[in-house]
Amino acid sequence: MENQPKFDQWADICEDVLYEIAQRIHSSVDYVRFRSTCKNCYINLPKYFKHCPLLLLPSDDNKSESLRQIFHPVENKVIDHLSLPGAKDTVFRGSCFGWLIMIGTNDTIRILNPITKVEFHLPPISTSVGVSGYDPGRYDKEYTIRGSNGVTYTFAKWFMQRVFYYKIVLSCPPDDENQDFMAVAIAQVDSSTSLCYCRRGDEKWTRLTESKGLLLYDVIFHKEKIYAVCALGSIYEYDMKTLRGGLSRSPSFDDNVFFTADVRTYLVQCSGDFILVVKRVPIGFYKNKCEGEFDDEDEDEDEDEDDEEDEDDEDELQTSRFLVFKLDESQNKWVEVKNLNNNVLVLGYNSSCVLPHAISPNGRGNCIYYSDNWVESQTKYLSGGYDNGIFNLEDGTIYPLFPDRDVIDPADIT
Prior knowledge:
Pfam family, one: Beta-prop_KIB1-4
Domain KIB1-4 beta-propeller: 72-391
Organism: Senna tora
Helix content: 10-25%
Radius of gyration: 22 Å
InterPro entries: ARM-type_fold, F-box_BR-signaling, KIB1-4_b-propeller
Strand content: 35-45%
Protein name: F-box protein SKIP23-like
Distance between the termini: 47 Å
Largest sheet: 5 strands, mixed
Oligomer: single chain
Number of helices: 5
Structural class: mainly beta
Shape: globular
């Protein structure tokens, strides 16, 4: 009997050892299970732990729209299936701290934990800035929007669901009562984009940015501040508590860098530095004769290829390359970088983040993992889901996330 193994020794493991074990768990799903092993784990381990993001995919069973596969990039396989309550006819417009932000066609915006199934509601679409009316009985004209010029317009619920909100991020997990919770959205207001926010318990969205003509593409939280980046790389900064702020800096670029319409910009905080990521589709972002990467002949060839691609399939928007810049604060300038110090960037509708290569998919560093977040390709008539892949920053090659899938409709769980 003395040699009989003990099955209750988890309770005796010290906190440091538990933390070391937790660091070696690559899946948020497995972490939730591990933390639930015993009272000792539950008390001593944090509720949320930074892991490699997972990817939600549609189920192989087309009859069940609420059932989603979980793809684990590190293991390169589907590891589980999740039932997402109310996922039918919803779109994903954010993922933070393991929570999904889902917008429905029934005027709802929900925050759902895909593991525990706990959910919270953000103010509905009908309380958004500029929305003056909502009538679910008016087919294809459910929403009324009043412009700053006093003119009213009507929009269908599918448009408001898919296009009105570009991205939503959270300051903290919605169930953490010890932190100041805030949700910030990039929304379409008066033919431009604007930051709108709500706090815990708010019944409507409130506009944060008043400037007209803005084209914002990404927003993040960092040290109780809100940072947003526009299409040209300018950064807008606001204090979470006082809401004071505005245009913070407009860093310059080298003379051989310029923008056109077909780009997306992302803002990432990495070890105290701002990182700007520029994603482009063909005919969008060019560097003029820089180190031989592009010349006039190359541009002509790109344009010819792009025209052929457009004729073959106008529904597809495919990323052709990324450029990455680091902010030089002393010069107020975006400086291009070719190395992420072996880190990995994860971009999409998720909160833009950086991961050490040790917990990155396949352990590969200096790469950008991206999923489809071209809002233009996710309307009623264009399905979207084509633009997913892995970009190698060192040699510029792109690998498909799923070679055996033509179209997916993914959402990152970060």
